[in-house]
Each structure stands twice: as C-alpha cells, then as structure tokens.
Specification:
- By secondary structure, the chain is mainly alpha-helical.
- The protein contains six helices and no strands.
- The chain has helices at residues 3-12, 18-36, 43-55, 59-71, 77-82, 93-117.
- The longest helix has 25 residues, at 93-117.
- It is globular and about 60 Å long.
C-alpha cells in the first residue's frame, strides 16, 4: 500500500464521515503493525503517524509526531507541501518552525557532503 496516496484519499473524504473515520482506523492499525515489527523506530513511520493526526484534526499530536520524525532524521520538506494533511496548518507557526528546521538540517547535511567531496589538499 502506498501510504502517501492512501493518506491523500483519506484527506479527500468528508471530514466527519464514516469512510474517513474507518480509513483513519485502518491506517493507524497498519502503522502500529509496521512499528511493532522489529522494535525499530523509523522516522518515516513517525511522519505517517503525524499525517494521520493532522487528518484527524489533532494539531498538538501532529506537531509532536512531526517533531519526533524530524528529530529522528526525517527531512522531506516536499511532503509538507504535497500531503493533503498539512493544508489546514499551512500558516501555523509551529509548521513554519518545522519547515525552518528542515531547511537548516538540509543545509547542514549538504555542507557535510561538500566537505567530503572537496579534497583537502593532503
């Protein structure tokens, strides 16, 4: 299952509809199963949980999970623009702060790559 596409479909359902509620439940169950396998915390799964919280209208939980994903190494700024879940929070200060952190971390990672690629003259 393509979780991003499924989340977009969930986001297209009427906000308080039975279909949306059932789809969110299915997504939560799937993410719980994926998270439980091997005991490994993957930032991508934490991000997907943040998406579900956002789709469910729980801004505090979405912010907390998105921050955890970022702390774990998730840096996909384009997802914040393309995932339907973030539309309602587009102008929220906390989402702007997360975008800024992603931009800063991305710049730091690019700098590390430049340092490795540039011969030091030794």
């Amino acid at each position: 299952m393509n979780l991003a596409v499924y989340s977009s479909w969930v986001g297209a359902q009427a906000e308080h509809s039975k279909e949306r509620a059932e789809a969110l439940d299915v997504s939560r169950a799937l993410l719980a199963r994926l998270s439980a396998q091997g005991g490994i915390v993957l930032p991508f799964l934490t991000y997907r949980k943040a998406v579900l919280a956002a789709l469910d209208g729980d801004a505090a939980q979405a912010q907390q999970l998105l921050t955890l994903a970022l702390d774990g190494g998730w840096l996909d700024a384009s997802a914040l623009e393309s995932d339907v879940a973030w539309r309602r929070y587009r102008d929220a200060a906390w989402l702007e702060a997360i975008r800024a952190r992603i931009a800063e971390r991305t710049a730091q990672e690019r700098e590390k790559l430049r340092d490795v690629a540039t011969p030091s003259g030794d």
